[in-house]
Hints:
By secondary structure, the chain is α+β, with helices and mostly antiparallel strands. Helices cover about 50% and strands about 10% of the residues. The protein has 14 helices and 7 strands. The chain has a 4-stranded mixed beta sheet. Helix 6 crosses helix 9 (about 245-260) and helix 7 (about 160-195) packs antiparallel against helix 8 (about 210-245). The two termini are about 35 Å apart.
Amino acid sequence: MVINTVSSYLETLQNSLFTGKMENSTIIDSRGLPARFFFRGQPADYNETNNVASIFRDGKRKNEYAYTNEYMRRYTEQFNQLENNFSRLTYMQHYGLPTRLLDVTTNALVALYFACQPHDNDDGLVSVFSSNRSRNDNAAYSYFSSHSDTVEILSTLALMNEEIKEKIFRKITDFNKAINSINNAIHDEVKQSYQDNTEIDYFNVWYNDQIKKEKSEDILNNIELKAYNKRKFKYNEKYDSLNDSYEIKCLYHDIRRDVNYFDNIINFHQLLLPFFVEPSLNNERLRAQSGFFLFEPYAAKNCVSKNIHDNIKKNISLLDRKGYEITLTIPNDNKEAILKELDIYCDINRATLFPDKENVSSYISQTFLKD
């Protein structure tokens, strides 16, 4: 989708988001919260590193603990004043350290502004995401407040010792694979039990025979109950093994150092999926840019940018009915004119999006002191 003006941009978004062209999986989640749309503007198409957080982009392993710990050591007073580990990650993101966070916005025009920034002769790009892309587990949400347990768990994990962190990521990954395998195996067993039990004929010749109908129902309920108990036993066995491990105990210890009380309960299943976080609007830039963060909870070791890009596309990128990502391209030749439109008609410019003294001064100089 090629964009020439601000109005064509808004019209294209309108057609994409609200006329039924997008895929039919933007739903109200089981908390009752409706879908939210998020946008990210880039001055160029970075291909497989599009929408990949800075810590993962170059394909090299970064010792996340080493540099985050060093940064916090140098600014101990500032970091001690922050409310939780997620706030510490956003502080680092704000000042340019590589983190697991990716800046996104709920304001489509803000994303357009960033997509129109000069970058050699490259075309700009706006990506669109939805918070409620359908997932297999109703308990797997994809946006949270900055105070949620999920955000605290993964923010704390990000700041942990690399060796322990990598083991935790691996253990959770193995746990999720095991749970999926258990679910698939029991599903197949239940299906086979239905087929093997000749007394079940609820929907056929016995439908009007109340006694046989009730007997069929009892058999079906018994099969389902046995499957439920078996699944619960196997799940609890795997969960207890993971939850009682040394590495997870270290994670609980670090969480409690940050937020005092935290029970020994973590929903590990599908924990490692990308999600959006609504931050506390404690700085002017976040407020001005309608800022959110995309949290990318992946193991840093041997990380492949393309795999992360594909995982984000699978889980949260907004897709059209053919399964393609909804992206909007801003030709390089149109960038300057669109920036002028955003400034004149929408009051979106360097001064309003970066409302500190230096950026406001620079904007005024460029706007009012031209020859």
